[in-house]
Design brief:
This protein is of the alpha+beta class. It has one domain: Jelly Rolls (Sandwich). About 20% of the residues lie in helices and about 25% in strands. It has five helices and eleven strands. The strands form two sheets. Strands 1, 2, 3, 4, 5, 6, 9 and 11 form an eight-stranded antiparallel β-sheet that branches. A three-stranded antiparallel β-sheet has the order 8-7-10. A hairpin with a 6-residue loop joins β2 and β3. α3 crosses α5. The longest helix is centred in the C-terminal third of the chain and has 24 residues. The two termini are about 30 Å apart. It comes from Microbacterium suwonense. This is Phytanoyl-CoA dioxygenase family protein.
């Protein structure tokens, strides 16, 4: 039967929406409660919707009964402090699973490449239903930072680099694409991440905000690129050696974040 997917994401696995005027909203991400939850890089998360409406970030399949990343329960105490963020996450009218703000500390390009991961969005998702993708709304003005997307984790051919000024809005099939962020700066980067179920509601939202997979590549000096490739290879080799010493094989598991 196959999953219901958005045609707009079929070719490249992502779309860029119209930019949002972030300056009109208060900095609600500074008021909500964060928990230590490591994803790719030095991170914390502030959940707005979780499996049971509690301030925690576990995958929905780790709860009882286990389920896929759909039907998230809004956390009243968090939504009260961040009504605009909750409104934006709910605007498409698509089913929302996990919704949270990520706080990412500065992360150079080489670390970003090492951190590249795919998300396990569709574990336990029944065939014939909507495929879960993720929205990324950049909240802070990180003009020198950029999102990295790859079809193959260790192959830079075709790497997509998307700038992250305040108001940048992306929708990504993060179970298909390897992804992470290079954050060049001295202050944390904040981004709203929402799991949405694909279907007519999300398609209409993408159309409303002129979703496109055409983008202007964020330019990075060649020496920085080369150093990043080398750093990823070095860290991958060190990780493999660590697990080999323990008689195990290093695996690049999907992220639950």
């Amino acid at each position: 039967m196959g999953y219901i997917k958005s045609a707009a994401l079929e070719e490249k696995g992502f779309v860029i929406l119209d930019s949002y005027d972030q300056s009109l909203d208060p900095k609600e991400w500074l008021d909500i409660e964060y928990v230590d939850w490591k994803s790719s890089g030095d991170t914390r998360f502030a959940p707005l919707a979780s499996a049971k409406g509690e301030i925690e970030c576990n995958g929905f399949w780790n709860h009882k009964p286990p389920r896929t990343d759909k039907d998230g329960v809004w956390i009243d105490s968090q939504v009260a402090k961040a009504p605009n963020l909750a409104r934006r996450a709910q605007e498409p009218g698509a089913n929302v699973g996990r919704c949270r703000v990520i706080e990412l500390q500065p992360t150079p390009y080489g670390d970003c490449l090492y951190n590249l991961h795919q998300d396990d969005n569709n574990r336990l998702n029944p065939d014939g239903t909507g495929w879960v993708v993720r929205g990324f709304f950049n909240l802070t003005d990180d003009k020198d930072s950029f999102f990295v997307l790859r079809e193959n984790r260790t192959d830079p051919q075709g790497e997509v680099r998307i700038a992250l000024p305040a108001g940048a809005q992306l929708i990504i099939d993060t179970q298909r694409l390897w992804h992470a962020t290079t954050h060049n700066g001295t202050e944390p980067r904040y981004n709203l991440i929402t799991s949405w179920t694909s279907g007519p509601e999300l398609d209409a939202y993408i159309e409303k905000y002129h979703g496109t997979d055409q983008h202007e590549q964020f330019e990075v000096p060649q020496d920085v690129l080369e150093h990043g490739y080398a750093e990823q290879a070095r860290k991958d080799a060190a990780r493999a050696a660590y697990y080999a010493a323990k008689g195990q094989q290093a695996k690049l598991a999907m992220s639950e974040a």
